[in-house]
Structures are given as C-alpha cells and as structure tokens.
Design a protein that fits this description.
The chain is an alpha+beta fold. The protein has helices spanning about 45-50, 60-70, 75-90, and strands at about 10, 15-20, 25-30, 40, 95. The longest helix is centred in the last third of the chain and has 13 residues, at about 75-90.
C-alpha cells in the first residue's frame, strides 16, 4: 500500500495471535508457527496495535494516538503511518475489504 493509505481501515490479521498485558503486547505469526519469532510491542506501538479494530483508518489511528500521547517520540503522523505500513508489510494488519452486494 505505497499509495496514500491514510483512509484505509485496518484490522488485525486473523493469522496473528497476541497477548496484551496492558503494558506490552506480544505477537506471533500463526502462518509460520515453527519459525516465527515473538514480536514485542510497547509504548506507542502497543497503542497503535490496540487502535487497529477494523473500524479505524490510518488517519483516525494517528489522531487517537496523538490525542492520547501528545508530542511523545513515535507519535508524529509520519511515524504512525510508517508503523501501520510496517504491520501491513509483515501481514500482521490487513485492510478491511469493502462489503460486496
């Protein structure tokens, strides 16, 4: 999604298991369970993961994180968009597909 994906709504991949202890999140890719390495998310990365709910776009996720954390490191719109793209690149977050009639 190298084009402007700020309006894309994101959901968590159904092939990712995660544990959230309220402070940190550990992800594991279920498509590669033997070779997958757990990934630790904390700080703004954990907040971004929690904000991905199938209803929010990249733009809305950025607004939510910025409202929560203000100008903390990792909270610029560019940083948030880059991290959402990182999640997408690793197939941990996927675009919500439009409903078909």
């Amino acid at each position: 999604m190298s084009d402007d994906s700020s309006g894309v709504r994101w959901q968590r991949s159904p092939f990712v298991a995660f544990v959230d202890d309220g402070e940190r999140i550990v992800l594991i890719d279920l498509k590669e369970p033997i070779s997958a390495r757990p990934r630790l998310l904390s700080g703004s990365a954990a907040l971004i993961w929690r904000a991905i709910n199938g209803a929010r776009s990249t733009r809305q996720i950025a607004a939510l994180i910025q409202a929560t954390l203000g100008n903390s490191p990792g909270t610029s719109t560019t940083d948030i968009h880059a991290f959402v793209e990182h999640l997408h690149h690793n197939k941990w977050a996927v675009p919500v597909q439009p409903a078909t009639n």
